[in-house]
Design a protein that fits this description.
53% of the residues lie in helices and 7% in strands. With 405 residues, it is an alpha+beta fold. It has a domain of 103 residues: Beta Polymerase, domain 2 (2-Layer Sandwich), CATH 3.30.460.10. The strands form 2 sheets. It has a 7-stranded mixed sheet with strand order 3-4-5-2-1-6-7.
Length: 405
């Protein structure tokens, strides 16, 4: 049995960056022998064996080789990987097996496809994710790889990707340090119109320049995502920020640059995207709420107390303060995701929190006990909470007047 360190661990070691998971390729042994040694088999399409102590992943060579030599088996496995920089093996004696010259691509900061890249179209998303992850180190997608991906898109090879695999790549990108580059790369390669057509069609759709100096809705959406990344590491918040304006892509051209009623359309489209991608409910719920109510948050100081309370109820904010915090961060990202507004304060968030705190502090049990008609209890509580929010609004208005004077 011979073991080779492969994949990302070799790549990162050569780049001099921290190594994450360590994956191994093993030769000279069968699956049955690995199981007999205590390894645990996982995966269906491509079996991987977990080490009984370290739990690191060990895999047998893919495909095999005509001559059966160990070198040929390793090379054959490496060639079937996604990118040349991930197709390098490190032997126990310190030597490298590098059939596709991946080390040269590492030196030249190039993301280049392997001969078998096209066998699995999900690799297009992996390519975009590596462009985002390694972009700060100067990596760029090689021109032949760009051409190949465009050919794959034109040929419809991305049309039937498994939703769960697409979602896995998207959420990993959202958890990364630069998801904006991930989506930009997909768009540059022509793949965004297949993966997220609702987002892709926002590019070229204008908005009123007075509120959006950047004008382009697609540009704005990526600016909002970047601000969300500055404000939070939570992928739910980042996705909700990215998808909040999808409805503007369905506004009739005759109505441009106005987008009246886009919030409801955005909410429906965001839900549809999350459903198509099989996203967990927590993503779907937050995306819908941010899309539907972000304008309410921006106009917080203009809302009547009753309207503000209804918004809090729709957000389920009285019971779930964390949900409100997520919503407000996405709304703040939307406000700052505009040219020239990047550092603009967003007091609406603190005002929303103050209103929520006042409404939640109302003694509902006391009100319920004192009600003559049980059917009137919900209305009595609603009116009491509205008055509490009105008092908060009055204090904020007085403080603003004092500040001005």
């Amino acid at each position: 049995m011979h073991t080779y360190l492969v994949g990302g661990a070799v790549r990162d070691q050569l780049l001099g960056v921290p190594i994450g998971d360590r994956d191994w390729l093993v030769t000279g042994v069968t699956a049955e022998q690995l199981l007999a040694r205590g390894y645990r088999k996982v995966g269906r399409d491509f079996p991987v064996f977990l080490h009984p102590k370290s739990a690191e992943e060990y895999a047998l060579p893919r495909g095999g080789a005509d001559d059966g030599s160990e070198q040929a088996q390793v090379c054959n496995d490496l060639i079937q990987r996604d990118l040349t920089i991930n197709a390098i093996a490190l032997a126990a004696d310190g030597s490298y097996i590098d059939p596709l010259d991946g080390r040269r691509d590492l030196r030249e900061r190039r993301l280049r496809h392997t001969p078998t890249f096209r066998n699995d179209p999900i690799r297009v998303l992996r390519l975009a994710r590596f462009a985002a992850r390694l972009g700060p180190l100067g990596f760029r997608v090689a021109q032949p790889t760009r051409q190949l991906v465009r050919q794959m898109v034109q040929a419809g090879e991305l049309d039937n990707l498994v939703p769960e695999r697409v979602w896995s790549e998207i959420v990993r990108a959202l958890q990364g340090t630069d998801p904006v580059t991930f989506f930009e790369t997909l768009r540059e390669l022509g793949a965004l119109r297949v993966i997220l057509p609702e987002l892709d069609r926002l590019f070229g759709v204008p908005q009123p320049e007075r509120h959006h100096p950047e004008i382009d809705t697609g540009v704005h959406s990526l600016m909002v995502l970047r601000q969300a990344c500055n404000l939070s590491r939570e992928p739910e918040i980042r996705l909700a920020a990215l998808l909040h304006d999808l409805g503007k892509g369905t506004t009739p051209r005759a109505d441009w640059p106005s987008h009246h009623g886009h919030e409801q359309r955005s909410a429906r489209l965001a839900e549809r995207v999350c459903e198509r991608l099989r996203a967990p409910n927590r993503y779907r719920e937050l995306c819908r709420l941010v899309a539907e109510y972000h304008s309410h948050c921006h106009r917080a100081f203009e809302l009547k107390p009753a309207t503000l309370l209804r918004t809090l109820q729709q957000l389920d904010a009285l019971r779930r303060a964390t949900r409100l915090d997520q919503f407000l961060l996405a709304c703040e990202a939307d406000s700052r995701g505009r040219q020239g507004f990047e550092r603009r304060p967003y007091p609406q968030a603190e005002f929303f929190r103050a209103a929520r705190q006042a409404a939640a502090a109302v003694d509902t049990r006391r009100l319920a006990k004192g009600a003559d008609d049980q059917k009137m209890i919900p209305d009595i509580i609603f009116q009491a909470r509205s008055r509490a929010i009105a008092a908060v609004k009055k204090r904020w208005e007085e403080q603003e007047i004092l500040t001005i004077t």
